Model the fold of this input.
Amino acid sequence: MKTPLLTVDAFVMKNGKVLLGKRKSGTFANHWELPGGFVERGETLKTAVAREALEETGLKVIPQKTVGIYDDPKRDPRGHVVTVTYLCKITGGRPKPQENEVKEVRFFSVAEIRKLKLAFDHRKIINDAMKMQRRKA
Done:
């Protein structure tokens, strides 16, 4: 029996802008995405999202609230991958690509994001997170 793989994504905002990383190669090369990746064995989801954000962006974050669970079997062309996305708060570090998967890290306004090529279903996730942010404000 094959089961879906599990990933996490971090939705990070600073001064009204959203943090994204540009994929270096592979699936969705040169597309922008939320920081995230696969959960490792023995790791909690919150630990995984903090680790992935640090590994990809150089920023230390604390996950604060779940945005949602995204489980469409077709969301990732590599296979059935389920992701859990968290609203995260920056606690330290500087935005800088840290890993060989990401070639650029930047904060974007919502207007700028509309024009970007985004990986996976990250446009939907960003829209959901922005709705949560507006309700919170």
Summary: The CA atoms of residues 57 and 95 lie 5 Å apart. The first strand starts at residue 5 and ends at 14. Strands lie at 5-14, 17-23, 32-33, 36-38, 59-70, 81-93, 102-108.
